[in-house]
TrEMBL record:
It comes from the Bacteria. This is Uncharacterized protein. The chain crosses the membrane at residues 12-31, 51-72. Residues 74-94 are annotated as: Disordered. Keywords: Membrane, Transmembrane, Transmembrane helix. It comes from Streptomyces gancidicus BKS 13-15.
Length: 94
């Protein structure tokens, strides 16, 4: 690696770090403590509800979709009988 690549990597890293730092400084989490007019939050979720909603439900949906894709896959039935006669390696005798 040349020095130009290292300088560009350092410059890109510094830019990314500076952008992230500025975004963190500009956001104000303290404002989340002040309630807005008309704000009516509900009750919080329990640990079981949170795990079910954000872990088990997405994993279950992924499993159902993957199962449907595998069950309805028709590519294994479509075989071309002529493709088995094609040889890719040359048979040369010296």
């Amino acid at each position: 690696m040349g020095t130009v690549d290292k300088k560009n990597a350092l410059r890109a890293g510094a830019l990314a770090a500076g952008t992230t730092l500025m975004m963190l400084l500009m956001s104000s989490p303290a404002l989340a403590l002040n309630r807005d007019d008309g704000d009516d939050p509900g009750t919080g979720l329990s640990v079981i509800e949170t795990l079910g909603l954000y872990v088990l439900l997405p994993v279950g949906l992924f499993a159902v979709i993957a199962g449907l894709v595998m069950a309805l896959d028709k590519s294994h039935q479509k075989k071309d009988p002529t493709s088995s006669n094609i040889r890719t390696k040359a048979e040369s005798k010296a």
